[in-house]
Amino acid sequence: MTATRTARERARAELTQEIKDEARRQLAEVGAHGLSLRAVARELGMVSSALYRYFPSRDRLLTDLIVDAYNAIGEAAEQADPGKGAPRDRWLAIWQATREWARAHPHEYALIYGSPIPGYQAPQDTVAPAARVALALVKVLTHTELREIDGDVPPQLRAQAETLTKVLGIVAGPETVARLLMAWTQLFGAINFDLFGQYVGSVDPADEFFAHSAKRMAEFVGL
């Protein structure tokens, strides 16, 4: 009985993966707003009712794809960090790996950092995977002596920064935390501009600009 159950579980996992692979292929053609469970089922030679046993709604399938994408880009960032060596070099490696993953998987990247999907509201399941790149950058700072940064931080932002230092387990002043948030925003803003053609006519290709931005943001946060 155990062997039979294991075989069924394995078959279910394999078909679940096939469904998600087909959904990713369709993302490249019609985008997230056009994703349809019926279309996925048709391409896999399944009846819609059978597919609903794996994904009861389009939103459930989208959530799985979003979680997978966040985990994949997060894993790329984490694996790029050797965990030792000059903190500045580790920071730059994470930035570069994050951009490389986005360029290699533009449709999956657009799913998580592109336009909001009409009618879809991301559940709590997506929060932890979405934080992995940011936490990889924070890890570089955790045991690093940062250059002291002073700044006039507004009260509400100061309180938010103090909460974040406790949650993230880092020792940093509110201005440093604010700058880290700015750098995180700059990272994905630069990738978005690159992937979505906003640098055309200015710094396209954006390789050197991106590398320069990564270095300046390292200095900006105190590395």
Short description:
Helix content is 69%, strand content 0%. The chain is mostly helical and 223 residues long. Helix 4 runs parallel beside helix 8 (132-142), helix 5 runs parallel beside helix 10 (174-195) and helix 9 (155-168) crosses helix 10.
Protein architecture, described:
- With about 220 residues, this protein is mainly alpha-helical.
- The chain is about 70% helix and about 0% strand.
- The protein contains 11 helices and no strands.
- It has helices at about 1-30, 35-45, 50, 60-80, 85-105, 105-115, 125-130, 130-140, 155-170, 175-195, 205-220.
- Helix 4 (about 60-80) packs across helix 6, helix 4 (about 60-80) runs parallel beside helix 8 (about 130-140) and helix 5 (about 85-105) packs antiparallel against helix 8.
- It is elongated and about 60 Å long.
- The mean pLDDT is about 90.
Topology:
Elements: H1 2-30, H2 37-43, H3 48-51, H4 58-80, H5 87-104, H6 106-113, H7 127-130, H8 132-142, H9 155-168, H10 174-195, H11 207-220
Helix pairs in contact: 1-2, 4-5, 4-6, 4-8, 5-8, 5-10, 5-11, 9-10, 10-11
Residue stretches low in confidence (pLDDT < 50, at least 5 long) are none
Give the total of beta strands: 0
Which percent range fits the helix content? 55-70%
Estimated radius of gyration:
21 Å
Principal-axis shape: elongated
The portion of residues forming beta strands comes to under 5%
The average pLDDT is 91
Sheet with most strands: none
Tally of individual helices: 11
N-to-C order of helices and strands: HHHHHHHHHHH
Structural class of the helices, strands and pairings? mainly alpha
* First-to-last CA distance: 58 Å
